[in-house]
């Protein structure tokens, strides 16, 4: 396995842009819950680890976010 | 054959008005952050997108059949440049303005991820201008505009858009507005 495939997929939430419209919490109920004000809350705060089977759903959330507040990236954590 | 283009041009215009009304409705519902019965929020967003593309198809059919029609005789510049048509230039021109705005809305919608949120949003506001232009064009140059059924249909569409805009401007428009105002 190379470094890229070992790297963890991570969903970054830009809370400066997020308006809590709730599309991502619908598409990724396994990872995100909605707080009382509509904003997504995930384990890990603004960087949520995405298991491989949820990669497609996470990409959909990125594409459909009406505020373009989500980013999917691969990171290697020590 | 002449009558066919004229009839098709009219029919596709009438269908376009209804579809663009639906697009405005779905856009405003989408903006509220609320789901619809049986439709989650992301489906409302996707339906807004696909309905707008369907409306564009009917709009292109509307314009292209009237380019072929020997009575309307729209030339390619008439389609883009408002108020230059030979027949009924003012009211046809309002439709041309709406057409130009639709092109801008669709292109920036499809390139949303590339042009950035700020540019997309600024241009997307033009949707609120596009609809009244299309409506005035339908009433002013529509051959059926004198018919009661058409009046009922067009003003029905206008009533729907007006209601949605009033809702858009109301204090509890956003799904979470109560919570955000601290009234949870």
TrEMBL record, chain B:
<dbReference type="Pfam" id="PF01794">
    <property type="entry name" value="Ferric_reduct"/>
</dbReference>
<protein>
    <submittedName>
        <fullName>Iron reductase</fullName>
    </submittedName>
</protein>
<feature type="transmembrane region" description="Helical">
    <location>
        <begin position="123"/>
        <end position="140"/>
    </location>
</feature>
<dbReference type="InterPro" id="IPR013130">
    <property type="entry name" value="Fe3_Rdtase_TM_dom"/>
</dbReference>
<keyword id="KW-0472">Membrane</keyword>
<feature type="transmembrane region" description="Helical">
    <location>
        <begin position="152"/>
        <end position="174"/>
    </location>
</feature>
<keyword id="KW-1133">Transmembrane helix</keyword>
<feature type="transmembrane region" description="Helical">
    <location>
        <begin position="6"/>
        <end position="29"/>
    </location>
</feature>
<feature type="transmembrane region" description="Helical">
    <location>
        <begin position="88"/>
        <end position="111"/>
    </location>
</feature>
<feature type="transmembrane region" description="Helical">
    <location>
        <begin position="50"/>
        <end position="68"/>
    </location>
</feature>
<keyword id="KW-0812">Transmembrane</keyword>
<feature type="domain" description="Ferric oxidoreductase">
    <location>
        <begin position="12"/>
        <end position="133"/>
    </location>
</feature>
<dbReference type="GO" id="GO:0016020">
    <property type="term" value="C:membrane"/>
</dbReference>
